[in-house]
Description:
This protein has 86 residues and is mainly alpha-helical. Helices cover 59% and strands 0% of the residues. It has a domain at 1-59.
Amino acid sequence: MKQMPQEYYQRLEEIQAIDFVLVELTLYLDTHPDDDQAKQQFNQYAKYSKQLKRAFESKFGPLQQYGNSYTDANWSWGTAPWPWQI
Length: 86
């Protein structure tokens, strides 16, 4: 297994934590669609998630596939470890 720098794992863990918050807020909003504070939190975390992913990808390459992440000149998709490999 390819070993990545510690920063890779730290940033990835932060992304995973924020995306977990988004999953939980989604589930909550499915049953409480009129909760304006929860909607505001969802949008705040969604924006933060995008910022984290953009910063991650600028340093380590594409994080998502199928058009959710832009590619670099080297088509680096798949050169980093897969999520189940870390």
